[in-house]
Amino acid sequence: MNAIVADNFAADFERLKPLLPGVYVPWLRALREEAFADFLDKGFPSTRQEDWKYTSVAAIEKGRFVPAAAAAEVCWDVGCVGSQELPGARVMVFVDGRYAPELSHLGSLPAGVTVASLAATIEREPERLRAALTPAEAGYASGFAALNAAFLCDGAYVGLAPGADLAEPLHLLFVAATRNAAAHVRNVIAAGAGSRACIVEHHVSAEALPYFTNAVTSIDVERNASIEHHKLQDESLLAFHVAAVRADLGEASSFASTSFAFGAALSRTGIDVGLNAEKASCNLDGLYLIDGRQHADHHTRIDHARPRGRSREFYKGVLDGASRAVFNGRVIVHADAQQSDAQQTNRNLLLSDQAEADTKPQLEIWADDVKCAHGATVGQLDPDQIFYLQARGVDGETARSMLVYGFAAEVIERIGLLGLRRRLENLLRSRLPAGRGIMR
Description:
Elements: H1 3-16, H2 26-42, H3 58-62, E1 66-67, H4 78-84, E2 90-95, E3 98-99, E4 113-117, H5 118-124, H6 127-133, H7 143-151, E5 156-160, E6 170-176, E7 181-191, E8 196-205, E9 212-221, E10 226-233, E11 240-249, E12 254-261, E13 266-275, E14 281-290, E15 295-304, E16 310-319, E17 324-333, E18 341-350, E19 356-365, E20 371-379, H8 383-390, H9 396-412, H10 418-430
Parallel strand pairs: 1-7, 2-6, 5-7, 6-8, 7-9, 8-10, 9-11, 10-12, 11-13, 12-14, 13-15, 14-16, 15-17, 16-18, 17-19, 18-20
Antiparallel strand pairs: 2-3, 4-5
């Protein structure tokens, strides 16, 4: 990171420190200072680092994105919010990373369920967040994570007491509305023993604007609890999106993750799951659908740390134009994780000669009583299948759209939440040349 870029970030940090939530909380002030020092030390990742070998973030480093905490107050049209809401869901709306209660509707929450903005929780009950915001012994995974900790302004806090059940899905709608703004979003989900919830993290933009989203979501799932986390990134094609999701699983708990990347000029999503107790299980599904010169990167890591854990991973990508996708899926079965069961699949469909997919599934097995498998494919549409449809009266464009839809819909159909599934089906059809003519 050059001196000018570092000086710009330092000036922003000094200017914003008194305005960020928790300024009077000693441990949080110290955490922010340490995180910013770590960011200056690490800088932005470079392609010389193995995990970032195929993803250059130089455009983010060179861009002058002003932290949204310093941006002018904005208001997004209520009607536009309504068009994005999932039917039957409780909705929290964030504009440029800051909670907008006037656009949200949570209703009366069940006993044992707390849903609030992170900024409000920091001000009222900072100790409730101390463990979640404190970095692990290994420190911050990247300069982006350190930058998020230094500038974190708002996000969602979801607390579930033991046995609590949030029956309706919770829709966290993040709207970018300011040109050249940077939103450092932090979400914290704490699920007590035996609790349940379904959470949709949805990133969109008010219009075609350049901006930067840097989001971190931490999820703690205790014994016998069950959490679904669906992440939909449908940002402006001029935007940059970097996100990290970390889930720590307790005994016999379950975690289901889906990640959909449809927007942004450059997006990178890292998902780390720790199966840290016996019989913990996780399902990770994902779909990236990109065109033009879009770049979508997914890095996942599943740590089987204890015996009898189960993991399933299924990612697909559809690439057109001169787009590029990166998938790196790492599954580690530690020595104490006997009788682990892990399966991982990544499949990519290239619709043009210029599109490129770099896929790297990895299994690291240190136990001897396991059942593990992985696989990856990169290919194009089958001309025989296109010919079969054309022979039955389907024109070429519709035939190709039908085959692409069938390939991608396999991931969407695995979602149990009907409102989200319908939204994704419509997004998929809207991006295909003859997609509107494809029936459900």
